[in-house]
Amino acid sequence: MEENEQLSILMKGLRGQNLKDSQFAADNVRLRLVEVDESSEFLPLVYDPASISAYWGKRPRAVATRIVQLLSVTGGFLSRLALDVINKKVKENEVARAIEIREIVTSLGPAYIKLGQALSIRPDILSPVAMIELQKLCDKVPSFPDDVAMALIEEELGQPWNNIYSELSSSPIAAASLGQVYKGRLKENGDLVAVKVQRPFVLETVTVDLFIIRNLGLVLRRFPQISTDVVGLVDEWAARFFEELDYVNEGKNGTIFAEMMRIDLPQVLTTAWIDGEKLSQSTESDVGELVNVGVICYLKQLLDTGFFHADPHPGNLIRTPDGKLAILDFGLVTKLTDDQKYGMIEAIAHLIHRDYGAIVKDFVKLDFIPEGVNLEPILPVLAKVFDQALEGGGAKNINFQELASDLAQITFDYPFRIPPYFALIIRAIGVLEGIALVGNPDFAIVDEAYPYIAQRLLTDESPRLKNALRYTIYGKSGVFDAERFIDVMQAFENFITAAKSGGGETLNGGMAELGFLQSQTGYTIPRISTNVSQQKQPIQTRAALAFLLSDKGNSFREFLLDEIVKGIDVVTRDQLVQIMSFLGVRNAAPVFSMVPTFGPFKPAALLPSISEEDKVILNNVEKIVEFLTAGSSISRTSNQGVVVTQVIQELLPVLPGISATVLPEVLNRLSSRVLARIIRDTFL
């Protein structure tokens, strides 16, 4: 297979482009379950290998029956695979064998179906072709009899179902390997609900299969030439899979998720029963907007709550009739650690400044590169990948698909892997991106994600994210970059616009007024008269400035305090230079040079002056002021730039609350800076 074709197949697999979202099984699907007469009450509801081993260790006949069943289904495949190895035709017959695996796995029941789906996004374990075929696994199987389902409902409720529900559909709305769903209405309040009934003998079948696979893994550990840790892989996956078996836990996950989204993203719904259409199939005009909401939603999970919906499937994203995004199925969630959340933001900050040495270290922390690996051979490869990705206009314009493809290619040749949690992230982004590109070919997922990242950097109190924000604006050199500051603030404004459009409580509360500042009368400061006429109308300004002047911007103001002091110092000296020029004193140095010096004291050094470094600071101030006041009465006109002193004059009336806390520190730092400069210039 050509390398480009292999990469293309791999990216289709990572992005989940072959995921099936049908509601029912194909006609030829037959599900094999382990039916036992004994009670399963001793089987754990939380994954516990020791308890499972103890239960099935006492039932060798049932285990042997399942092994015979497995061998009868897989025997022909294993013999053909062995012949491929002997005849060195593994690569040649790879596609055919992958198709066979999919068909076998489908028939073996829920454990193998779910395991196959989990492996279908693991390029570090499977070949691209095998990934593609396993993603075609259909989790939908024939429904079990309705009378059995009704009996299970009544057993669980402890009473006839019609005591709880005024109506219940006579047949399931959908059926999958773990259970099937009926549509009902509660007698208590008339609410429509989804009634999910677990398939009989699922727990028995899943646990006996895990028992067999895990024991096989223990045997394989004796062979060092087999690098894949089957036991570790099974334990990692089974712990999460057991959560899907616990419907009570699934309900709790949905409640937790709904509460986390309610404040900032009420346009995202998680509820009992939702009418709507799949977002991927909707032709409504607001699909693009809902995709953007989905991007923010998944970023909030990824970088904020750490409670990640781990089944980002096209069938789980619904557009409701009133134009909201509904997310379904919370049986499987992944919890991200703070190290993973902060590590990804730190990596983005390093990427913005092309600090590839730091990115390689980030990848170790994020589990892309194993601990102890020599990073020197990987660094130039990653540098080349990121240089190519950044060519099109910086980090915001990165083509995520191409970048992921290039990173995936590294897994073929270097000790570089795609961690399971990040594979789920790629799939989530791929699903959303695929939907968006249908209606907007220019959709750029990274560009859409940047506003949320900016918001996290500006509002999070974590020391790690504060350092990441400082690095984003100052870079490796430690020099303030006005363009980068403006870039972050513009992205923050885009986030405010997107989130406010959905009516988030926080944003429509404390931040609803962003964009307008009202001047008050009674505040004046002396200033030099200019040719700019007095402006009397209220200041209309950007959300960025309103944020900086609000309580929410307090942490960021503290962060920028040194730059504020530098700006005030330089602007003041620049005004003094202009005053002297206005008075006709364009060059006072010869006059002051006539004043005798007193030892090391040089009176001429007291003259206000502007150095080249000061000019850079002044230019930064003008850029920032122009940006923050864009669209206001004091913004740039066609023939004159922003007058910084006028801006200060107009903004002072809205600063009394801030000045009480910030002004003393500003004056303290400003006096220290001025004194240090005087001592330097007059005595040294």
List keywords for this structure.
single chain, 684 residues, mainly alpha, four-stranded antiparallel β-sheet, four-stranded mixed β-sheet, 27 helices, 6% strand
Describe the structure.
By secondary structure, this protein is mainly alpha-helical. Helices cover 55% and strands 6% of the residues. The chain is built from 27 helices and twelve strands. The protein has helices at residues 3-14, 49-57, 60-86, 94-107, 110-119, 128-135, 146-157, 202-220, 230-245, 247-262, 287-305, 338-352, 356-365, 378-390, 400-413, 420-439, 445-459, 463-474, 482-500, 505-509, 543-548, 554-559, 561-582, 589-593, 612-628, 644-651, 656-683, and strands at residues 165-168, 174-175, 179-186, 192-198, 268-269, 277-278, 307-309, 317-319, 325-327, 333-335, 516-517, 539-540. Strands 1, 2, 3 and 4 form a four-stranded antiparallel beta sheet that branches. A four-stranded mixed beta sheet has the order 5-9-8-6. A hairpin with a 5-residue loop joins strand 3 (179-186) and strand 4 (192-198). Helix 1 packs parallel to helix 6 (128-135). The longest helix has 28 residues, at 656-683. It starts with a helix and ends with a helix. The model is unreliable at 505-540 (pLDDT under 50).
